[in-house]
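haha ok so turns out i had the wrong file open the whole time. this is the CORRECT one, sorry everyone. sequence first:
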Amino acid sequence: MSSVVAREVDGALIVDVLVQPRASRAGVGPVVGDRLRVSVTAPPVDGKANAAVIEAVAEAFGVRRAAVSIVRGEAGRRKTVRIAGVGRAALVKVGV
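then structure:
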């Protein structure tokens, strides 16, 4: 199994994700290549998918939505997200 690209920077976890918009159900995982898959039911229109990604990641890692931000890739499926207040150990919680 491949490992997800994740690093800790200034008390936050930076994770590369691959977004699957318009999925039948929302969820986080499994790892695809070197990225964590985030499935969302929202379409990739008017930032709806980005908002859904933030919500799905926050729920999976057990943090508030305000602790999750998209650092890179707002207009594409390949994104980098920052999750404040968690470390690499949190990846085990989501099954990575």
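The domain at 6-86 is CATH 3.30.1200.10 (Conserved Hypothetical Protein Mth637; Chain: A;).
again sry for the mixup
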